[in-house]
Amino acid sequence: MRDPHGVNARLRDLGAVHEVVMPTGLKVWWVTRWEEGRALLADARLSKNVADAGKLFERHQSDMSRQRDYSHVVNRSMVNMDPPDHTRLRGLVAKAFTVRQVTGLRPRIEEIADEVLGSLEGRAEFDVIADLAAPLVSTVIFELLGVPERCRADFSAGTAVLTSDSDRQAAQEASNALFTLVSDIVMAKRADLGDDLLSSLILAADGSDRLSDDEIVSFAVLLFVGGFDTTVNLLGNGTLALLRNPDQLAAVRDDPALLPGAVEEFLRYDGPANISHWRRTVEPVPVGEVTIPAGEFVFIALTSANRDAARFPDPDRLDVTRTAQGHLAFGHGIHHCIGAPLARAEGEIAFRRLLAHFPSLTLAVDPEELQWRPSALHHGLRSLPVRTA
What we know:
- This protein is α+β, with helices and mostly antiparallel strands.
- It has one domain (about 5-385): CATH 1.10.630.10.
- Helices cover about 50% and strands about 10% of the residues.
- The protein has a five-stranded mixed β-sheet with strand order 1-2-10-7-3. A three-stranded antiparallel β-sheet has the order 4-12-11.
- Strand 8 (about 285) and strand 9 (about 290) form a beta hairpin.
- The chain is globular and about 55 Å long.
């Protein structure tokens, strides 16, 4: 977790796919190269249906007491479904959560970014994670969904448990509390619809087909769980990359028009997720010279694929002028991240505003002192202390 790029480079040199054991003791197949990883992300022979995976966990998990509970609310969402269930849910959600809606949010995201950064004016140091990224991203998602102020602290606390390495009981308790909390919010929204995303999800329809309350709740939790950590990591990892590459920092500071492309490069160079969510093979799947048997768990190493020299020349070099399109930070295929437009908008705005407010930003600690979160899924810093002058 301190050096995923070094580990992945060694694995890429050895082959496209490897049988490995995760920190929890779960045996999986680890795909390290871009071409094979991209193909598998869109391969229907790899299922995401969590409902049928219980026996596979028993077979491949060395210690079931360390296995997370997959019954909670976020795992009943479309991210853990196959077609046709996934197709139906994604179609209905897409009617409410549109690119146009995200575009309309940009002025408010800019205001939130300026409010957060304005509160840091006059400080000699601050933490990019705790003082900028976390409040910015959480406020954007809460306002997008229409979560009342009084519910936000409980919402954040519950999702923090679900994304941590907490035990099964803590995760289940947090899931139950979140389900109750968001269900109550949705019920209140039905009686008083607004212009927020939860109201749009309630109204979304395809003929007579509509989202149930449970489906709306699951998507709301998914959006926060999936959108908060990844976007916070994008802002933290991207800022660190710039501060460790002064020539690239100077380039985007001098020419902010580079920022949309720079965000894509941050996602490729040091993306917010180490790996894809798990998939399982429903039949044997050849990957290069190896065949993954049926009934096996598969992870795509996103950070590894995005540094594959066969796809991205000189991949270990940050280059904000690079054409980084094709990176797998948001996945690929039918499960491509539905929140990608929002994350891109938040990233571009946050970096633009950060560099405008604090043009002389520098690291406040030695890079070797920085601590990465102990997560196999997420790739992000615990904190990123910076000096403003």
